[in-house]
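Run: sequence + arginine -> complex structure.
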Amino acid sequence: MNIQALLSDKVSQAMVAAGAPADCEPQVRQSAKVQFGDYQANGVMSVAKSLGKPPRQVAESVIANLDLTGIASKVEIAGPGFINIFLDPQFLAKNVDAAVASERAGVNTVAPQTIVVDYSAPNVAKEMHVGHIRSTIIGDAAVRTLEFLGHNVIRANHVGDWGTQFGMLIAYLEKQQQENAGAMALADLEEFYRAAKKHYDEDEAFAERARGYVVKLQGGDEYCREMWRKLVDITMAQNQKTYDRLNVTLTRDDVMGESLYNPMLPGIVADLKEKGLAVESEGATVVFLDEFKNKDGEPMGVIIQKKDGGYLYTTTDIACAKYRYENLHADRVLYFIDSRQHQHLMQAWTIVRKAGYVPDAVTLEHQMFGMMLGKDGKPFKTRSGGTVKLTDLLDEAMERARNLVTAKNPDMPADELEALANAVGIGAVKYADLSKSRTTDYIFDWDNMLAFEGNTAPYMQYAYTRVLSVFRKADIDEAELLKAPVVITEDREAQLAARLLQFEETLNVVARDGTPHVMCSYLYDVAGLFSGFYEHCPILTADSEQARNSRLKLALLTAKTLKLGLDTLGIATVERM
Ligand code: ARG
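>> structure
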């Protein structure tokens, strides 16, 4: 059910009948305040301007042509020419009936697009740190939402698995294997990388060997390829544990690392040269872009191949965008990468468009996000100033959640407690990130995210269990209940119903903008409306059986919506807490 789309359709027909051009925008929005009705159509203003008529007069003739029989109970003009639409309680009731009977809470599937989502993207032989957490969590919520709507989603984990550092990593892995007789000493990736770098900087023979391995690896040497694969495998096996803990849908099959594009790079450089886009400059191959200026105000030079023949991060992203269009047949490509890489992406894509590698109809979208900050407003660090490892962070989340839920549920069996602590702890970390507008930096604060009040995971999870408890007490047969009709008589019933029926609209916004916080706010709002409804409209002690059943159905749709909504965010729910 998409009421906004339905009303947009009706209002634009009425606008055309009132003299507006066929492509007029009805601008139908959800109203911000109850006194403005459920929806507002704001498109009259700009149409009146182009028709040269007073807006209220145009609004009147739009209303005269607007047929909302069976949909709205009242339509009125407000302010300079806004149209306020009040939905008919019978229309709401009918649609709640349909939604509650459907597995998808009445959400339609879309005409599917192929959408590539680039997210997570950790680096090989490096620990995943908090910098990767936002990409992983927000990207996965976007993926789940797009899939729920029916799109064909391709997860692309653009792992940093290529580059000159692999010579040194191979040389060090070799050394480790010799010294530890094959025992794997890559458990601490960060330490491994540091030690490899130290040898490289201090031991000339080691460095010599490392440089040799880079060349051999590039040339496809069997031994080096095998050592490289080991490094990738060990890193990704560790990352997989984190994905599983985080309830993130990425698997090993989703890895499309930088190495995948490496064989394409010479062809890209040659082609860009041939197209006259790339030129030789001081030994390197460079694309000069008018769209970007350097500090002297001249077109910025983007290096795509270094003097020594090496390629760059940008060259890889050019090939990667091309590949996603040509080989994966993407209609849209979403990149969940932090905002510091914005200029990099814009340069790569400007080149991609100029070279005609990806047509304009296929969008390349940087769904950027800010940094994760500590309570002091500075980049999130450990007490000693190091970067916080994701695994340590999740361990702490678990421990805090365990203490919290144990205190609240002293009699709960141990295994249920552990499952609850997991849902709450991991949920809290994820939800804290998801619920903030992603474009800004965000402050990581344990106390806020684990609070049982406010827009937090524990609150939402608890709200869900409260709705379920109504059913436990009612002790009814769901199939029987579905046969009883919803009847809406109270304002609070109407408000809850209208909001529940906006689930699809919310999903569409998240799918379009990559903004899971819109879903969080929506679910929080639903939970709040349900509380008010529950307090003022007795369910189990309703005056009539009809009212009781109708209210139980509203509660059932609330439960479904919360569950499905939290699923799209990757937040686990529990039955009781
Ligand atoms: N591995 C990179 C990093 O850790 C992120 C890669 C993002 N994706 C891309 N197509 N550039 O910063």
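>> summary
The CA atoms of residues 157 and 351 lie 23 Å apart. The pocket of arginine is lined by residues 118, 121, 123, 158, 160, 317, 320, 335, 337 (CB under 6 Å).
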